[in-house]
Amino acid sequence: MQEGVDDIEFHFFDPSQPIGQLSGNLPHWRQEGVRYFVTFRLADSIPQDKLRQWQEEKDRWLKRNPPPHTPEQVREFWRLFPERFHRWLDAGYGACVLGKPRVEELLRGVLRNFDGERYELGEHVVMPNHVHAVVSPLPGVELSGILHTWKSYSANKINALAGRRGVLWQKESFDHIVRNAEQLERINAYIRHNPEGK
Fold it and tell me: Cβ(26)–Cβ(36) under 8 Å?
């Protein structure tokens, strides 16, 4: 008999446990049984010049600050890079097709479709040009597979609803292993209050 989501105890990032790393422009750490804060965005959601500037600054910062990082360096990195990135998303660049009510409703359904079967879906929000979610993959399920399913299934349907063609989603998503209960509460509050800036 398969374990239900109610029988699984998810935990926070544990530096003593094995960590997998996927390649990409953003860091992608993987660990079994954890919660992730994920953000995926429309392909036109950040202007290319801003993105180039952000990447160059991040590369320089990482070169000047090799690991291991002190808590102060971690805070500085988050302020300069992930937090700034999310502020740009919230500025509402691009066509913002996810802001159309029928598109938003469709995407909410996609996110909830396998909740309890492949993952536990926590707080989540569909913004006009991006999506935030807390998601915990169930045993044997990879976060990359969840994100791929959400994005590939929704792309054609959203393009049809929005009367558009071409690439919808930015290929790479932002994901972060939740470190502790306090961080989870901050992330949940951020997701809940994100629509206030719409």
Answer: no
Q: Which residue has the tokens 């590369």?
A: 59
User: Which tokens belong to 105?
Assistant: 């409703």
Calculate the alpha carbon distances from 58 to 52, 62, 76, 185 in Å: 10, 6, 11, 27
CA neighbor of 116 nearest in space, from 3, 1, 12: 3
Neighbours of 39 (CB within 10 A): 20
Q: Residue 151 has which token pair?
A: 């994005």
Domains and CATH numbers, the chain: 22-45+92-197 (3.30.70.1290)
Tokens 């492949």, located at residue: 118
pTM, entire model: 0.80
Rg (CA), the chain: 17
Angstrom distance (rounded) from CA 129 to CA 100: 10
> Exposure string (b/e) for 137-175, b if CB count within 10 Å is 16 or more?
bbeebebeebbebbbeebeeebbebeeeeeebbbeebbb
**pLDDT, tens digit, 9 for 90 and up, residues 149-188:** 999 999 999 999 988 999 999 988 888 888 889 989 999 9
